[in-house]
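batch job 7 of whatever, protein = ABC transporter
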Amino acid sequence: MLSRRRRHARAGAAGRAAVPERSRFAVRDLLSEAVAGVVQRPARSVLTSLGTVLGVGAFISVLGLTGSAASQIDARFNRLTATEVTVEDTGGNDADRVPLAFPDDADSAMGRVNGVEAAGVHWRVRLAPGESVRSTPAEGANGSVSRTSVVAASPGVLSAARPHFVQGRGYDRFHESRNQTVAVIGSATASRLGITTLRTQPAVFIGDTAFTVIGVFDDVERKPDLLLSIIVPRTTAEEIWGPPRDERAKMLISTRLGAATQVADQAAVALRPDHPEYLRAIPPPAPKALRDDVGSDLGQLFLLLSIVCLFVGAVGIANTTLIAVMERTGEIGLRRSLGARARHITWQFLTESAALGLFGGMAGTSLGTLVVVGVCLRNEWTPVIDLTTLASAPAIGLLTGLLAGLYPSWRASRIQPVEALRR
């Protein structure tokens, strides 16, 4: 009886010993195999991860440069836009009867307001039919630039716009008080008119009137449209062409930093205490809103570009991993015949593609940071990079590699051992 039980126990133990244990793939072995697969083919690994490097680098560069540019826009806003006020001549209910609401002493009246650095009245002159701007007195001769606009402006406009003169200078109150026919022009207009020097006292002809050019400028801090215009004194324009007709006059005011809102509140009363409703002051917009709008627009545009780069990188990893699966069919068959299960093959190739994505993400983070710092140094900006962005960039590369390796890994797991060994 006892011997029979022992025989049954021995037979059961022998049966259990005959059943092979299921193969296991430890995490340590998985990582070592993935690293070995990447390192054994360095050239292919570098080319495969290049798309992720560029995608993540573009991601870091875009967000970093957007933040740095937004900071510079904010600083430039504080220096220029935050110190600029525009006053429009609306005429109120008497617009038809009062073509020009600004008084003759508008420049000096506005200059007495606390916080104002310079102020001037300007409007676009409407030339009569057939009148044109020429460098010669004869109609139809060479040198005609009929499309050039003529701007009537008081001397305060030149002080507020701050043009950079390359030749001569701007006109002043003396020229305006004497209604002198002088003009200042931009360098592009001077080139079109054939004016290369002021030593010969060149003149431009507006209609039948000759205006002596006393200044040529190549840049302005405010009102860039003046670069393509011929600027003449306000009183001279009124005497020849009358008050503004097509467009009502405006006033450009340059203020000290922080005084723009106060100046805008006082401008209408300071200029026309009898009819402040004739004028409307426009203060500068809020700097935070402007910065947020610009930053949002730039961020959305360039973030889309970085997503496209990441997509291209993911396609590159998927394509290369799929080719690697085809080339390593024999290896896959050998692993399967030795006991590796389908999911082990899946995890192996998926880990390799994730490692490529991670390495590409780390390299792209470094590359993008260098690009941001280099551009900021070249333009004398302060680099602004969010630490959260830097920390998340390698993770983005890892996720890109994982997504790119899903299909090739699935294909590798579907390869049958017998078919693989036949190849």
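notes: The chain has two domains: 27-75+289-422, 83-285.
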